[in-house]
Amino acid sequence: MRYEGPQSRRRGHPDEATDTLARGLGWFSIGLGITELLAGKSLARGLGLTGQEDLIRAYGVREIGTGLGILASDDPTPWIWGRVAGDALDLATLASGLNNRNRQMDNLLIAIAAVAGVTAIDIICADTLSRETRKPLRPLADYQDRSGYPRGLESARGAARDFAVPKGFRTTDLLRPFAG
Amino acid sequence: MRALVWHGTQDIRCDTVPDPQIEHERDAIIKVTACAICGSDLHLYDHFMPGMKSGDIMGHESMGEVVEVGRGINGALKKGDRIVVPFTIICGECDQCKRGFFSVCERSNRNKHLAAKAFGHTTAGLFGYTHLTGGYAGGQAEYLRVPFADKTHIKVPESLTDEQVLFLSDILPTGWQAAVQCEIEPTDTVAIWGAGPVGQMAIRSAVLLGAKQVVCIDRVPERLEMARAGGAITINFAEESVIARLNELTAGKGPEKCIDSVGMEAHATATLDSMYDRAKQAVMLESDRPHVLREMIYVCRPAGTLSIPGVYGGLIDKIPFGAVMNKGLTIRTGQTHVNRWTDDLVKRIDDGQIDPSFVITHRIGLEQGPEMYKTFRDKKDGCIKVVIRP
Predict the structure, then answer these.
(1) Domain B2-169+336-388 CATH (choose: 3.40.190.150, 3.40.50.1980, 3.90.180.10, 3.40.50.10160)
(2) How many structural domains comprise chain A?
(3) A53 occurs within a structural domain
(4) CB distance from A179 to chain B under 8 Å?
(5) Is residue A102 part of a domain?
(6) Residue B274: what pLDDT?
(7) Where is the Alcohol dehydrogenase-like N-terminal domain (chain B) (predicted)?
(8) Three-state secondary-structure class, residue B193
(9) At what angle do helices B338-350 and B171-180 cross, to 10 degrees?
């Protein structure tokens, strides 16, 4: 569970802007993952990474898993850090294509710049989430006197035992104590 | 007139709309003097319940003064009468109404073909609660048309204030029915999931009906505090294990009676099943998150009872029905048969056994309604129950 920050949208949830950013990154992960999974061959060719199609598809599965994790959890922090780790893998893989034989060097450099930018956003998001307060919530109002019993709690206990439960709502006889 | 109108997901506005008219001889029009926002309105606000249309007027907890009656009312109501309006619209004449199962009235849902498609058979018409239940205009408005008004009303004594009787419309009889369905014995532990308004009423009902101990599970501190004030032992599910604590409180045997006053939008975290539900919901493969149901089934004592006033809207997944069967659990659920309980509850309020107004935390006018929906949904400002004075 996440605890309240100064801009909390909901009690027990992270601040609104970071929450929205995290959810956005979750959807981005799923979208990118599907693209990598379905178009692994085209991506590899376009980036000059021929022969790494299966690796790109595997990264696609990783992206989809991370995205679902972000969207499915109340606390996306570990999943966003997971994205940061994935970004490092992506950058390392892209860097392996930085050689003179690569005829798609322009595309590769654009991809590296894009991944670096997304990495920066991931790090900012994960760091902000990690720095949120973990202090337990305190009551926002004092309701200690809200018993609802005008004559007090003790006199309320069992005060309605005279109520005859209608037939249709009674416990079945099969489940009553068996005396005989 | 002014009314709170649904325009889409998390989009409720205070609009000017046409005044309601008598459409049928059994109708009455009331001038609303007080109404409330219900937890189940949030299912509409978040659009978890299907069947809403832009322009629908919200609200099913209302009361007011009769200003006009149809020719077929036959003296059951007259101008000037002060009535609370039950959220279930009832004809009083069909087989189900005659048996007291008012929430499954066979005649009041004017879209019964839709309900029959969704549920197999029709259920009662409800105020301000989707076109599956009739698409009737709700009572978060200055005026409300009450269909079948000769039966769909609760007369209340002048000695009681609006705030004391308003919740006869829904949350008090709902919490009461939840506890009654448990047929509480003096030796019973009653565990209640959810400390929202219905959970609070279920706690008071279980105490009044004589449970040995009442336990309430939630994570919002001010709600837990209100639950303790009502005599419940509380469990903050964000801080401790619900299963372990309930077993500890019952010598390892589990509570005999379990009440789900949470329903389809459970906010459990860090459990495998809640992760599963959220993942399915994220890709729109599931509407309801039944974490509470699973937990109740698991922890309930064998031969115990599960009572479910919490609202579910569609299909639920991964329910451990093997445990239900092998433990011989009884499941009781349903929308509330409001009028079945209200005569008795009016007497108990009048007698001073309970004053339901304890739950009110915010009092507003209609214009503040849209903002207050957000405050209530987000559990901000200590908000537990909002009363609107149109």
Answers:
(1) 3.90.180.10
(2) 1
(3) yes
(4) no
(5) yes
(6) 75
(7) 25-155
(8) strand
(9) 100
Token output for B135: 């698409």
* Residue-wise pLDDT tens digits, B167-195: 999 999 999 999 999 999 999 999 999 99
State whether residue B117 is helix, strand or coil: helix
Q: Name the amino acid, one letter, at A10.
A: R
Residue of A65, A106, A108, A110 whose CA lies nearest to A86: A65
Residue B173, phi-psi category: left (phi > 0), alpha (psi -120 to 50), beta (remainder): alpha
Alpha-carbon distance B106 to A134, whole Å?
A: 52
Q: Is A6 on the interface with B (CB under 8 A)?
A: no
CB distance B9 to B341 below 8 Å: no
pLDDT at position A6: 47
Contacts of residue B359 in chain A, CB cutoff 8 Å? Answer: 146, 148
ipTM exceeds 0.85, yes or no = yes
Question: What does the longest C-alpha to C-alpha distance in chain A come to?
Answer: 93
| Ranges of chain A whose pLDDT falls below 70 | 1-16, 133-137, 179-180
**Per-state percent for chain B, helix, strand, coil, to nearest 5:** 35, 20, 45
Is position A161 within any domain?
Answer: no
Q: Which of residues 81-120 of A touch B (CB under 8 A)?
A: none
Contact check, Cβ <8 Å, B381/A156: no
Neighbouring residues of A78: CB distance < 8 A, sequence distance ≥ 6: A69
Tell if the CB–CB gap between B382 and A175 is shorter than 8 Å.
no
Provide the CB-side half-sphere exposure for A167 (13 A, CA): 2
- Find the distance separating the first CA and the last CA of chain B, reported in whole Å: 10
B207 with A146: Cβ contact below 8 A: no
Please report the pLDDT score of residue A133 as a whole number. Answer: 65
Q: Does A72 touch chain B (CB under 8 A)?
A: yes
Longest dimension (CA), chain B: 61
The CA-based angle A75-A76-A81, given to 5 degrees, is 130
The reported pLDDT for the residue numbered A137 is 65
pLDDT in tens, A59-83: 999 999 999 998 877 778 899 999 9
| CATH architecture of the domain with residue range B172-333 | 3-Layer(aba) Sandwich (3.40)
Pick from A73, A165, A175: which is nearest to B278 by CB?
A: A73
